[in-house]
From TrEMBL:
Residue span(s) of domain Carboxymuconolactone decarboxylase-like: 44-92
Protein name, UniProt field: Carboxymuconolactone decarboxylase family protein
UniProt GO molecular function: peroxiredoxin activity
Length: 181
């Protein structure tokens, strides 16, 4: 059950309204997470700025795969529904690849290295081994790309934590736990 209410349009703080309106126009509806997050213009706009900047990092399949892996580790059911939906409909990942990403892997070797590295970052709270960094570099990622992966892990963790704390009502199709598939 939701621990905070999603805002109705007339109750959105003026400082959050342009950002929320842009998301609503882009997505076609206002996700409950965003309607709840908009209560804090500072946090919401900071997250939206980070999301916008990181949408230029790597490719969409890799970004969504990282989002799935991080959300699985963090146990964020809301984000798993969102990332499963976007991975299927925007990144065009098949169902088997979505499940594989949730388990920290990918069929594509380069993407697999990025997803494994992201999973190591979240599982170790950034205390990765030299071998982990060497593996992502060996797959063809630069240090700048590795930094982008770390930033994606942090951004996805932010929404994971927000959703785990405030538990907005899910508005994307439910997904089964990865262990039961």
């Amino acid at each position: 059950m939701a621990r905070t209410a999603a805002l109705t349009p007339e109750h959105v703080p003026a400082e959050s309204k342009p950002t929320l309106d842009a998301f609503t126009k882009n997505i076609g509806f206002t996700p409950n997470m965003m309607a709840a997050f908009a209560q804090s213009p500072i946090a919401f706009n900071a997250w939206a700025t980070l999301l916008g900047a990181l949408s230029k990092a790597l490719d969409v399949k890799t970004r969504d795969s990282i989002g799935l892996a991080v959300s699985e580790v963090n146990g964020c059911n809301y984000c798993l529904t969102v990332h499963s939906f976007t991975a299927e409909h925007m990144a065009r990942l098949p169902a088997a690849d979505i499940l594989l990403a949730r388990k920290g892997h990918a069929n594509d070797p380069k993407r697999d290295a990025a997803v494994q590295f992201a999973r190591k970052v979240i599982e170790t709270r950034g205390h990765v081994a030299d071998a982990d960094l060497d593996a992502v570099r060996a797959a063809g990622y630069t240090d700048a790309n590795a930094m982008e992966i770390v930033a994606l892990v942090a951004m996805y963790s932010l929404t994971n934590f927000f959703n785990n704390v405030f538990d907005p009502e899910k508005d994307f199709p439910a997904v089964a736990p990865a262990g039961s598939i």
